[in-house]
Amino acid sequence: MSDPFAFLAQASLGTRVVVRTRIPGGYTDALGFLRERSAASVSVETKRGLVTLAMEDVVAAKDVPPAPEPRSRLL
Fold first, then answer.
1. Per the domain annotation, does 33 fall within a domain?
2. Source organism's superkingdom (predicted)?
3. Residue 11 covered by a domain
4. pLDDT of residue 2
5. CA distances for 25 relative to 21, 22, 28, 58, angstroms
6. Structural domain contains residue 70
7. Is the pLDDT of residue 7 over 70?
8. What pLDDT, on a 0 to 100 scale, did the predictor assign at position 74?
9. Which range marks the domain in which residue 33 is found?
10. Which of 52, 46, 48, 53 is nearest to 67 (CA)?
11. What's the rounded Cα separation, in Å, for the pair 44 and 25?
């Protein structure tokens, strides 16, 4: 597995990413667009809004392809 910190440092802002972080009792993922980053945190714009994640909690990160186009409804 690649280094999530190196990936987040090099990824262009606006890249669609998934970032896994450690939370009490397990892990959670943030899927969306990388909007901000610093040595201490990254911000990902998800469907539910902007989420700021502490770098110390990050355990994995990678880029993901664009979301699929919505399927047309059958009448």
1. yes
2. Bacteria
3. yes
4. 76
5. 11, 8, 10, 15
6. no
7. yes
8. 75
9. 4-63
10. 46
11. 22
CATH number at residue 15: 2.30.30.520
What are the pLDDT digits (tens) for 17-69?
A: 999 999 999 999 999 999 999 999 999 999 999 999 999 999 999 999 988 88
- Distance (Å, whole) CA 29 – CA 22: 9
Helix, strand, or coil here: 70?
A: coil
Bridge partner residues of 50 (DSSP): 45
| pLDDT at residue 73 in the model | 81
Whether the CB-CB separation of 32 and 16 falls below 8 Å is answered with yes
The amino acid that residue 31 corresponds to is L
Residue 74 is assigned to a structural domain of this protein: no
Split into its structural domains, the chain has a count of 1
**57 with 67: CB under 8 angstroms?**
no
